[in-house]
Amino acid sequence: MSLFSLENNVALITGSTKGIGKAIATRMAEQGAKVIISSRNQDACDEVAGEINGLGGQAIAVACNINYKEQLQNLVAKSQEAFGTINTLVCNAALNPYFGPSQDIPDEAFDKVMHANIGSVHRLCQLVIPGMAEAGGGAVIIVSSIGGIKGTDSLGAYAISKAADMQIARNLAVEWGPKNVRVNCIAPGLIKTDFARALWENPEIYEATVAKYPLRRIGEPDEIAGAAVMLASKAGSFTTGQTLVIDGGGTIAG
């Protein structure tokens, strides 16, 4: 069996109707995982699950707003009802309602970022990891950002939340490692997604960004999905508590 096979694996991926999340779900399904597609919009979830099923994969669609604990509980319950124990949890859903200096961010926006980007990851891990451990182990993958390891003058709250994601991974890796549960982060650089559209569609920001990237381009969602497959599979079985930076070399050259 391939080191990257995800046969007999159940993978729950939040924010998986577009961009990085959709790419991860699609590629995990290609490797044999049964996947749960989730975002706030049920129709969008149904569409992506239908695409995966149409290609011979196995997927279900469960809408969930990560801001509400009861919806996270329902997401996990529906996933387990359909496929059994969740072996892989990908915390990809996040939000960023504010772009600008930290001095000017409204309290409501700051609190919203922290509640969604940190709180939902914490709560999902609480809901899912005990079942993983009881079943003999599993993998949690948190999609963070290079914003969590660099200073920024325009993404302050978001960057704070993404740095916190990295610490969640370290904490839970220590806490659950003895039960064979691995917890890691992926920190993408600028990726061509709708979420980052404000950055890559702005010619000034785009050119300034890629000029600092040794590869001289931004990334594609599949270039993050490959790393997620690795971390979920036997290929990543001795990797835990780490943050894998995938940014075209931006952080080492910028």
Describe the structure.
Helix content is 47%, strand content 14%. With 254 residues, it is α/β, with parallel strands linked by helices. The protein has one domain: Rossmann fold. It is globular, with a radius of gyration of 17 Å. The N and C termini lie far apart (40 Å).
What fraction of residues sit in β-strands?
5-15%
Give the CATH level 1 class.
Answer: Alpha Beta
Strand order of the largest sheet: 3-2-1-4-5-6-7
Provide the gyration radius in Å.
17 Å
Average the pLDDT over all residues and give the rounded result: 96
**Number of alpha- plus pi-helical segments:** 9
Helical content, roughly? 40-55%
Which residues sit in consecutive blocks of at least 5 with pLDDT less than 50?
none
Q: What can be said about this structure in brief?
A:
This protein is an alpha/beta fold and 254 residues long.
List the helices and strands and how they pair.
Blueprint: E1 10-14, H1 19-30, E2 34-38, H2 42-54, E3 58-61, H3 69-83, E4 88-91, H4 107-134, E5 138-143, H5 156-176, E6 181-188, H6 197-200, H7 203-212, H8 221-232, E7 243-246, H9 250-253
Parallel strand pairs: 1-2, 1-4, 2-3, 4-5, 5-6, 6-7
Give the tags.
254 residues, 7 strands, 7-stranded parallel beta sheet, Rossmann fold, alpha/beta
